[in-house]
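Lab notebook page, bench 4
Experiment: in silico fold of construct C2
Operator: M.H.
Input chain length: 221 residues
Purpose: comparison with the prior construct
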Amino acid sequence: MTRICIALNTKSWDEARKIINLLKGEVDLFKVGLPLYLGKGKEEVSALIRDGIKVFLDLKLNDIPSVVSLSLEEIPKVEILTVHGIGGYEMVKWAVKKREDIKIAVVSLMTSISEDWALGVFKRGVKGLISNIARISSEAGAWGLVVPGNFARFVRKNFKSLKLVIPGVRIERSKDDHIFATDIFEVKRWLDKDDVLVLGREITESPDPLGKLRRVKEEIG
């Protein structure tokens, strides 16, 4: 089954630890984002790693190659780390080379970005932007690509070396800031066992997070 990651959508490590302790026997990874990592994140993430918890560190690093390379020296040995594809080929290549002990996943498109914004800023549509960043990521030797689920089929068919990380996954449709939110049952057919599905508030804010997670795992097989 495709790997399941739970997003720790909080800036409180006390809250994060409660979620981790409740769900750690049922998921493969926990995603730590920038709000949670700021402050004492390095120490907390290092502690999780010592406890055998696999961490997906979602910092979306984006700067000139030398600065990103220098920043990576301070990152604990997490399972997966994100850099942003907008930083370009050289930045991704430097990141991959600097931390060969970490799976580098390149962010192709924030799920809150619209087609109009992509056209206005990059003079190409969302699919063209994703294709360009996927090509850069593949050529630079990145492990994977963070991509909206409705583009999973396109990336899988055209960039077979890249593993897929699918954010904004929804079990039930709801209003939020994810323009490219993806139905979990629509995307699973294009994923394999090394890809990652990221689930968030639908699980962690459920009255019964553990029960809901188990039901989802049964349904997606």
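Observations: The two ends are 7 Å apart (CA to CA). Strands lie at 3-7, 29-33, 55-61, 80-84, 103-107, 144-146, 163-166, 169-170, 182-183, 196-199.
Next step: discuss at group meeting.
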